[in-house]
Amino acid sequence: MATSNDLIKHCSVIKFLAAEGFSAANIHARMKTVYGEMCISDCAVRKWVRIFKGEDPRETILRDRKRSGRPLSALDMAHREKVECMIRANRRVKQKEIADEVGILKERVHHIVTAVLDY
């Protein structure tokens, strides 16, 4: 099974050969002789050639771009204050109890307690 690094290498080869004007079938045949059983399928080679054609090969990015991700709604001041209030009321309260009461994940409670409140 090919790893993500192998896929990036294969895509780089496809990008290079497509920029030189080779057909998808020719690219796959050349890659099959070099990589053998570890070569990606003909269908995948054709897909990548279609992606690379029509674009400037120097501007194509092979890795995923960074995304903003899901917003951290459990770190607002209201949740922080509720967690701190529960801890001050009962210093032996468990993170699971806080999570159930406040309505956030236990991992978020742990983050608030350790990183935000510095307990």
Descriptive report:
The protein has helices at 4-19, 24-35, 42-52, 77-89, 95-102, 106-116. The mean pLDDT is 83. It starts with a helix and ends with a helix. The relative contact order is 0.10. The longest helix is centred in the N-terminal third of the chain and has 16 residues, at 4-19. With 119 residues, the chain is mainly alpha-helical. InterPro entries: Transposase-MT_Hybrid. It comes from Plakobranchus ocellatus.
Rounded to an integer, what's the Rg over CA atoms?
26 Å
On the 0-100 scale, what is the average pLDDT? 83
Order of helices and strands: HHHHHH
Q: What is the beta-strand fraction? A: under 5%
Q: How many extended strands?
A: 0
Our measurement of the CA-to-CA distance between the termini, rounded to an integer number of angstroms, reads: 45 Å
Low-confidence stretches: none
Helix content: 55-70%
Count of domain modules? 2
Query: What structural category arises from helix and sheet content?
Result: mainly alpha
- What characterizes the major β-sheet? none
Put simply, the count of helices is 6
| Global geometry | rod-shaped
